[in-house]
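User: Hi! I'm working on a homework problem where we have to compare a predicted structure to a textbook description. Could you give me the structure for the chain below?
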Amino acid sequence: MNLGALFSSTDMASTLIPETILLFGIIAMIIVPNLGNATFRLPIPGKAWRIPYFVGGKRFSFTSDPRLPSAIAAFTLFASFITALLSQMGEIGVADSCIAMRDGVARAGPEWCSGGSVILEVNAFSRLMEMIFTAALLLAVIANWDRLPATPHHRIPLKTQRDEVVENRRLHRLLNNRRQVDFALLVLMVALGMSTVALSANLFMLFVGLELASMASYVLVAFNKETKVGPEAGVKYFIVGSVASAIGLYGMSMLYIWNGDLSIASLHSAWTTGPNGMAIIGLGMMLVAFGFKVSAVPFHFAAPDAYSGASGPVAGVLSTASKAMGFVALMRVLIGITLVDDGSEWTLLIGVIAAITMTWGNIAALGSHNPKRMLAYSSVAHAGYILAGIAAIGALGPGEGSELIATAIIFHLAVLVTFKLGAFLVIALLECEGRGHELEHYHGLARRDPLIAISMMVFMFALAGVPPLSGFLSKLMMVSGIISSTVGDVSGSSLSDAMGSMSWVFWLAILIFINSAISLFYYLRICVVMFYDDTDRHLRLSRAPMIRIAIMLCTMGAVVLGFGVLADVLASAAHDAAMALFG
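Assistant: Happy to help. Predicted structure tokens:
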């Protein structure tokens, strides 16, 4: 393959602008902080001529600023988000395009979307999911500006301090400065991997993106290695995730042996003719890997430790962007490959897993007094809600009802970034003063910082599905889609006939209602201790202006995306994405 011809193509450039920006951001993250006044001497006898080559030597004041890596990461993610948004706005960009391998050469353009050789596909679904990923990561980078603060060098003493407390503070600042590039680079690697998953139309590319994002995520979980729980959480997450990925990769190899091609279109064509035992076993093994990514029971046991060991912004990314990435992979396989007109074989299995996942997640959260672990189990419950929608799609088969439910799932994954990530950012704000891991740390928070307490209350209500917040609208769309698609017209029928005509998926919608009612208890428990319990602290929370900005953005999103014009715009975008997902 001629790489020069590949990237000089205007179709290729216009198709992959957001991904190209992420790639250049990664390159800039490696090069720019190392720029300096380095020179080398020309080997000419009797001459001392030196030519600068800038990489190395004493760094320039601009490139040595420890705040630069976060700025590069934030700009890169913002630019990728904007270009992904513009690519779906009519004549401004490329609405639908594909990259396919034909005769060993990569081709780009809308005309290459037919056939079984497509490896990447740009459409409304992939671009919306990509925007969800980059938005969550951008908020995490903004919040990390204060959670992992960078101190200008002139404010750090060069010599060892005699006072032990002052010396520890100096060493901590030096450590934070040295870790800025590492954190920002890992975040961009996660973004590139997630974007690859969103665009993937081939299982090989999907796994490459999945593992690129996952490997960086494992390091981010254990990033605060000076804490007691960080390294342990990272190791657990890495071991369990690696085993799950290995099982999924083995399943993918079985699908390749069965079909001889890993493109989703080719696998779907082969599946409609009837899978054999090897294909079914391979699919089941891939579901193990994706079950870990979305924290579905029984593959969820590493999630609570990972969330509680990671910093607040990283835990927020795991609960939103990483979970959405897992569901993208799950929908690519279950909907893109195995969905047929008369229902799919995996429907009952996914339905059972959904029921157990949402119930177990809420029951486990009831007994948790660590807000991070509580939100981790809440994420398990939300995974169950989404799995219930996927089970309903499998039971219905392609059609208007499935598109409605898929719209609700995509809408829920989008608005989850606002209230779930926002809740973790409030925890990150308390972490700035070494607190936030126990329920009593939230006692009297409304007296210490009323605005932050109100934001946390909004996030808790949105998670519980209280109207008119966006969490209520997303659950309403999903439940109403399942009910309207499975009940049908029962007017004039007796109660027994009406009950008998209902699909079993209807009871998943009822279970979502019941579990939402259960979740109200532990969500409201945080609100009660914030507004009604006393605290031994009366000082205001840390200033942390960047975290506060991110929290306010999440609060506004949780409110305005629940009703009004912006909610309609997002729902319309989710519907377009669902239509693109079904082809």
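For your comparison, note the following. Residues 400-431 form the longest helix (32 residues). The two ends are 29 Å apart (CA to CA). Good luck with the assignment!
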